UniProtKB/TrEMBL annotation:
The chain crosses the membrane at residues 12-32, 603-621, 663-681, 841-862. May form heteromers. Residues 474-823 form the Ionotropic glutamate receptor C-terminal domain. Belongs to the glutamate-gated ion channel (TC 1.A.10.1) family. Glutamate-gated receptor that probably acts as a non-selective cation channel. May be involved in light-signal transduction and calcium homeostasis via the regulation of calcium influx into cells. Glutamate-gated receptor that probably acts as non-selective cation channel. Disulfide bonds join C771-C826. It comes from Nicotiana sylvestris. It comes from the Eukaryota. Pfam families: ANF_receptor (PF01094), Lig_chan (PF00060), Lig_chan-Glu_bd (PF10613). The lineage of its organism: Eukaryota, Viridiplantae, Streptophyta, Embryophyta, Tracheophyta. This is Glutamate receptor. PANTHER family: OS06G0188250 PROTEIN, OS09G0428600 PROTEIN. The keyword Protease does not apply.
């Protein structure tokens, strides 16, 4: 019994312990859950949302913001956040005042930490001011106007693209196709006007102009749109840039199609305001927009984006069952990324949603003064600006208060939607395929980088961008009325029909230039003069452009600095410069010394010296071997001059026997032949051709003699002459070529002028008919030629200047010049007036050749002579004077070794020697030859005579040889013969 009782007790005790343990675990678990719940308690952060709830963008934006917060806080990363955004939505009702009231209510009543919205730039302008006052960040994903700037309002954050960032893309498209005029069409509000200054600047950089701005009211009626489009049809420009909301833009294109403005020849470019919303446009509007070009920020296609798009369509269709086939666009993506960035920034800034600081205001303060200032606003603003992440729209990064975009996509509306035809980046310009990692920074705007484009009218041909307008305004082109020089400009008035005809060289050039422009410019010529009168001053004519009476001036207007102070000139189309024209006279009349003019004095002097030098060289080479070059000194000097100058006419009779002399003469005859032939030709030209020379050589001669000078009436030349210090009373004007010729013909002393100063085109026109009477002399004074005149800063000037270059470099310019000036039959006056005298520069090469040949022959001769008598030169017991004297005597003697003396001279020498002393024996003769001494011992025979036994004059045992004893005698001859014998001769 005890045992059983004990067992029962033990069993009951075990059961009680198990229940106690269970309840203990349950209590512990409950406490842990309570702790976790306490830790998971979140801080709500109030966020205001102000949008047009009836607008498509408003509904899409609010839906994307809600999904962004749901996706973020359900993610692994966002679930741990201690803060939660609580949305407070307000409807702005498409009204600026309603949007401001909604924002004011959120700031005052809810004390929101930030406001997302509003949609339009006009609504945002006032709300940004409220945010700055309350230090609450205002985040807008659709307010794109450049007038809204974070620099002026630091609490404004633009989570979208600034409209000004797309103007570079638009200007690159325009530059690629070479369009030069563009008409912007924009809505008349802050959003539309904000882009225009930036667009105008971008177009100006590519030399494109805006001739007209078409402004459409925000709530324009169909009739108003048609009226404005009809005005555009009457103009010449066919390139339009449309910047307006999608709703107004679709109305515009629908009416444009009805008026036929969506046909061939038109170019329509839409900004991203419409390009981003094409997905929400109905099919009828897309049909009207066929061929339109558009630009929009590039959004990369990712799996995350595709997944979100699918989920959004399903959710949006459930929330808005009446809206069918809704399509998400980039504004929804920016709304999604903005909400995500805000959620991240709120957590990072560690704000707690503290109450606003209340202002110290009186009881009767207005609502704008009554709301407080956020304590957490500055921290939240900095956190938002520092947020960077990979969003649905791409890289989300706020720089200088606005979202940055790496590229723009260029689209072409075709078929049921739009297709991409290229991209634009800051680094590479227009590219066909986008590669954001491309390191090649080559900027290109080539139209070859575009894909295939279908233009309005279903054509692939690029429109030229302009047409001849139906009622466009014509430019008033002022032209001068001239009395003379009608070849340049001629104005003819038919008083019976009251019509005016303008012709001339300048007019034809202007017509050709305007026809070469890449667009049509209508114009008409307006003469500047009273009926029956002439234009007195070209300065007055050009000044009319500055006054606005003329749109341009076409004529013989010269580009000078003082005129360029108030007008702009195109590039010149004529030769530039001012030159002096004077009469010419025959310079050959009554000239007794004309035979000296064929050669310059340098050439005359060089020729004379060369003749004397060659004659002297020939004498040196021939003196020892040629009997004709021997004789008394006077005869030999005369022979040098006679022989040298007789070669000029090849009249020399002396026979040349030395080969070296013959070599020199061959070269010299060539020089003489060329020199005499050139002299004869030059002299013949001078005697047979009329030699014309100017009556005045330079301007100093005019000023020195106080001569009268002439100038063309109405030109700028008088001012130039005054700067040259010409007296005012010495200037005489003329108005036509006939007066100019008459003044020059009379001369300064007979009521005319000594010279005329005029521009080169006028001077050439006069010389074309009077080249035998007048010529140009002196320097050409700088002037920039004729140019066309336009108002200061006119956008036409660059285009017209380029057209001037195109015309002047073409055959067209040659045809115009031939048509008005013909072909001149006069030779170049500068050639006839240049000196015909032959100078040393033309012949110095010949003289060098002759001199080298003569010197070479002379060196060879002297070398042989020195070698022959080297035994005399090397004698150290003779003074230099004695050696020179003996060598001179040796040179003066005949060279019996020469073939000319070998026979005849040897016989004569033997005969003379035998007759000298017939009483002497041969032995006596030999003794005489052996020594000059008469009282010495007998000398050895000639055959045994050596140089060592012979004593020269001046040696020991030999009487000195004095100057007075150096006469031509038998004794000296014997000494010289002994020297020769000692040398082995």
């Amino acid at each position: 019994m005890r045992k059983r009782t004990g067992k029962v007790f033990f069993s009951v005790s075990s059961s009680t312990s198990s229940f106690s343990f269970f309840f203990l675990c349950l209590g512990i678990f409950f406490c842990m859950e309570m702790a976790r719940a306490q830790n998971r308690k979140t801080v709500p952060i109030n966020v205001g949302v102000v949008m047009d709830m009836d607008e498509w963008v408003g509904k899409m934006g609010l839906s994307c913001i809600s999904m962004a917060l749901s996706d973020f806080y359900s993610s692994d990363h966002g679930s741990d956040y201690k803060t939660r955004l609580v949305l407070h939505t307000r409807d702005s009702k498409r009204d600026v005042v309603a949007a401001a009231a909604a924002a004011l209510d959120l700031l005052k009543s809810v004390e929101v930490e930030t406001i997302i919205g509003p949609l339009s730039s006009m609504q945002a302008d006032f709300i940004i001011g409220l945010g700055e006052k309350s230090q609450v960040p205002i985040i807008s994903f659709s307010a794109t106007s450049p007038s809204l700037s974070s620099f002026r309002s630091p609490y404004f954050i633009r989570a979208t693209q600034n409209d000004s960032s797309q103007v570079k893309t638009i200007s690159s498209i325009i530059q690629s196709f070479g369009w030069r005029e563009v008409v912007p069409i924009y809505v008349d509000n802050q959003f539309g006007e904000g882009i225009i200054p930036f667009l105008a600047d971008a177009l100006e950089k590519i030399n494109a102009r805006i001739p007209y701005r078409s402004v459409i009211p925000e709530f324009a009626t169909d009739d108003h749109i048609k009226y404005e489009l009809s005005k555009l049809m009457s103009m010449q420009t066919r390139v339009f840039v449309v910047h307006m909301t999608t709703s107004l833009g679709t109305k515009l294109f629908t009416k444009a199609k009805e008026l036929g403005m969506m046909g061939e020849g038109y170019v329509w470019i839409i900004t991203d305001a419409m390009a981003n919303g094409l997905t929400s446009v109905d099919s009828s509007a897309i049909e009207a927009m066929q061929g339109v070009i558009g630009v929009k920020p590039y959004v990369p296609r990712t799996k995350q984006l595709e997944n979100f798009t699918t989920r959004w369509k399903l959710k949006f269709q459930q929330e808005n069952p009446t809206i069918l086939n809704a399509e998400l666009n980039v504004f929804g993506l920016w709304a999604y990324d903005s909400a995500t960035a805000l959620a991240m920034a709120v957590e990072r800034s560690r704000i707690t949603g503290a109450p606003f600081r209340k202002p110290n205001v009186s009881g009767n303060a207005t609502d704008l003064e009554a709301f407080g200032v956020s304590k957490d606003g500055p921290k939240l603003l900095q956190a938002i600006l520092n947020i960077t992440f990979k969003g649905l729209s791409g890289d989300f990064q706020i720089v200088e208060g606005q979202l940055q975009s790496p590229a723009y996509q260029i689209i072409n509306v075709f078929g049921n939607g739009a297709k991409g035809i290229g991209f634009w980046t800051r680094e590479n310009g227009i590219v066909k395929e986008l590669n954001l990692r491309n390191t090649n920074n080559v900027y290109s705007i080539s139209k070859a980088n575009f894909g295939s484009i279908i233009w309005p009218g279903d054509t692939t041909f690029v429109p030229k961008g302009w047409v001849i307008p139906t009622n466009g305004k014509k430019l008033r082109i002022g032209v001068p009325v001239k009395d003379g020089f009608s070849e340049f400009v001629k104005v003819t008035t038919d008083f019976t029909t009251n019509t005016t005809t303008v012709t001339g060289y300048c007019i034809d050039v202007f017509d050709a230039v305007m026809a070469a422009l890449p667009y049509y410019v209508p114009y008409e010529y307006v003469p500047f003069a009273a009926p029956g009168k002439f234009t007195e001053s070209y300065d007055d004519l050009i000044y009319q452009v500055f006054l606005g009476n003329f749109d341009a001036v076409a004529g013989d207007t010269t580009i000078v600095s003082n005129r360029s102070q108030y007008v702009d000139f195109t590039l010149p189309y004529t030769e530039s410069g001012v030159t002096m024209m004077v009469p010419i006279k025959d310079d050959n009349s009554d000239s007794a010394w004309v035979f000296l003019k064929p050669l310059t004095w340098e050439l005359w002097l060089t020729s004379f010296c060369s003749f004397v030098f060659i004659g002297f060289v020939i004498w040196l080479l021939e003196h020892r071997v040629n009997e004709d070059f021997r004789g008394p000194p006077s005869h030999q000097v005369g022979m040098i001059f006679w022989f040298a100058f007789s070669t000029m006419v090849f009249a020399q009779k002396e026979k040349i026997v030395s080969n070296l002399a013959r070599f020199v003469l061959v070269i010299w005859f060539l020089v003489v032949l060329i020199l005499t032939s050139s002299y004869t030709a030059s002299l013949t030209s001078m005697l047979t051709v009329e030699k014309l020379q100017p009556t005045v050589r330079d301007i100093k001669e005019l000023q020195k003699n106080k001569e009268y000078v002439g100038y063309l009436q109405g030109s700028f030349v008088p001012g130039l002459l005054r700067k040259m210090n010409f007296d005012e009373d010495r200037l005489r004007e003329y108005s036509n070529p006939e007066e100019c010729v008459d003044l020059l013909s009379k001369g300064s002393a007979n009521g005319g002028v000594a010279a005329v100063f005029d521009e080169i085109p006028y001077v050439k026109l006069v010389l074309a008919n009077y080249c035998s009477k007048f010529t140009t002399v002196g320097p050409t004074y700088k002037a920039d030629g004729f140019g066309f005149v336009f108002p200061m800063g006119s956008p036409l000037v660059p285009d017209v200047s380029r057209a001037v270059l195109s015309v002047t470099e073409s055959e067209k310019m040659v045809q115009i010049e031939k048509a008005w000036f013909g072909e001149s039959t006069c030779s170049d006056s500068s050639t006839s007036l240049s000196s015909n005298s032959l100078g040393l520069a033309s012949f110095w090469g010949l003289f060098v050749i002759a001199a080298v040949a003569a010197i070479l022959a002379l060196l060879i001769f002297l070398t042989k002579f020195m070698h022959e008598y080297w035994h005399i030169i090397k004698r150290t017991n003779l003074s230099l004077r004695e050696r020179v004297r003996i060598l001179a005597r040796k040179f003066d003697r005949k060279d019996y070794s020469c073939h000319t003396f070998k026979k005849s001279e040897l016989r004569e020498a033997m005969r003379d020697s035998a007759c000298m002393d017939c009483s002497q024996s041969p032995h006596d003769n030999l003794s005489m030859l052996s020594s000059p001494r008469t009282n010495g011992p007998p000398s050895p025979s000639i055959s045994s005579y050596t140089e060592q036994s012979f004593h020269f004059p001046g040696e020991v045992g030999t009487p000195p040889l004095h100057e007075e004893n150096v006469a031509v005698s038998t004794q000296e001859s014997v000494i010289e013969l002994a020297v020769d014998l000692s040398a082995g001769h």
